[in-house]
Amino acid sequence: LEGILEKAKALKSGEFKDGKREPIAFGLECLKVGFVLPDKIEGVLEKLEADLKAIPNVTEAEQAGMTLL
User: Fold this and answer.
1) Considering the entire predicted model, what is its pTM?
2) Torsions phi, psi of 7, nearest 5?
3) What radius of gyration, in Å, describes the C-alpha atoms of the chain?
4) Which of 6, 16, 29, 56 has the greatest number of C-beta atoms within 10 Å?
5) Model pLDDT for residues 21-65, shown as the tens digit of each residue
6) Which among 18, 17, 6 is positioned nearest to 58, based on CA atoms?
7) Count of structural domains within the chain
8) pLDDT of residue 45
9) What residue numbers bound the domain in which 35 lies?
């Protein structure tokens, strides 16, 4: 997961804030990452999700939460 985290940090679709590994079950882990995105640009979240899914060995990317800063 460290290689995926490094590639997520390098994405230009948003400002990377944090990343952490979390256990799911039976030894499986997921990587949760946080980004800051501009709220005035249409489609920015979809672009970030597509860029995350384009990282090798990433099978799914989804929005888990959102708030305004």
Assistant:
1) 0.84
2) -70, -35
3) 12
4) 16
5) 999 999 899 999 999 998 888 999 999 999 999 999 998 998 888
6) 6
7) 1
8) 92
9) 2-53
